[in-house]
Amino acid sequence: MLKIAYSPLYAHPLPKGHRFPMEKYELLPEQLVYEGTVKEDSFFVPDDFGEKWITYSHDLAYFDRLKKLSLTKSEIRKTGFPLSDDLIKREIQIMNGSIQACLFALEFGIGMNIAGGTHHAFSDRGEGFCLLNDIAISANYLIANQLAKRILIIDLDVHQGNGTAQMLTHEPNAFTLSIHGQSNYPLHKEKSDLDVGLPDGTTDEVYLSILEYHLFPLIDNFQPDFIIYQSGVDVLKSDKLGRLGMSIAGCKSRDQMVLQSAKKNQIPIMCCMGGGYSPRIADIIEAHSNTYRLAQDIFF
Predict the structure, then answer these.
(1) Phi/psi of residue 43, each to 5°?
(2) Distance of alpha carbon 128 from alpha carbon 172, whole angstroms
(3) Cα dist from 270 to 110, 112, 184, whole Å
(4) Nearest to residue 231, comparing CAs of 106, 119, 103, 88?
(5) Model confidence at 129: pLDDT above 90
(6) CATH number at residue 74
(7) Which of helix, strand or coil describes residue 178?
(8) Which segments constitute the Histone deacetylase domain (predicted)?
(9) Could you tell me the residue range of the domain that residue 147 belongs to?
(10) Is 192 exposed, middle or buried (0-12, 13-18, 19+ CB in 10 A)?
């Protein structure tokens, strides 16, 4: 059965007019249940894995300041979120959800998190709607507990996974692949193990051919025994913060290529949702829903 991390904290309210679409975290589960892709019991509220795994990856001083809400105004502005106790609880819950989704992936082949993909969080700071890096934390958890030996991180959000690259740069057992808009945020790119920067307006056909060119040889050569997939839908042409030219159908084909590769090679995969900022919330929900529909069809 498909297992999906979800918590009411994911939809933490933001000030009116804030550009981050928190409502997608409530609407997406409703849509998946309504259409029959999953049932209510597919969702789980994440367990508490403790602060140990946060400070295993993030600097202790940074996490202490985060909990005390003592970041500077400049640091808060860079995160894009107004800082609050509830927001910190939300970020911790997202981290817990991704770790537990990894454990379900080891059991069922795939595990998913309605939120997550917080790839702009660095070891010592937050950026771009990301305070704690659930991808790096999950990878380190799996490696430290000898649950995986070689982890491939496939980051297909429109923005480079700069925080993930920084946090895992000295971890030889994790390979970071980021395919992103070259001229998009962040202005300064970190060095992933493999970065593929795409020009503005990249279409479905070009994108999918580039993904195929890099993904299949990488799986063959790196031989991962676990995949973490950041499946942001801000690659859509309609996205307010993206600059690529992909359709919803093209985004679905992208997900299909990744998920089928994992299934074919019998590699457990954890999927976290990443970004999506199209003006029509229906477009965001449809693109995200496709990831879950494919997961259900391919793995179950």
Answers:
(1) -90, 140
(2) 26
(3) 6, 6, 26
(4) 119
(5) yes
(6) 3.40.800.20
(7) strand
(8) 18-284
(9) 4-299
(10) buried
The pTM of the whole model exceeds 0.85? yes
Amino acid letter at 75?
A: E
The token pair at 20 is 């981050």
29-53 pLDDT, tens per residue? Answer: 999 999 999 999 999 999 999 999 9
* Residue 245 to residue 216: CA distance in whole angstroms: 23
Contact by Cβ (8 Å): 72, 87: no
Residue corresponding to tokens 């105004």: 73
Q: How far apart are the first and last CA of the chain?
A: 7
How many domains does the chain fold into? 1
DSSP β-ladder status, 194-198 and 110-113: unpaired
Cβ(165)–Cβ(144) under 8 Å? no
- What letter does residue 246 receive in the DSSP assignment? B
Q: Do residues 186 and 195 lie in contact, with contact meaning Cβ atoms separated by under 8 Å?
A: no
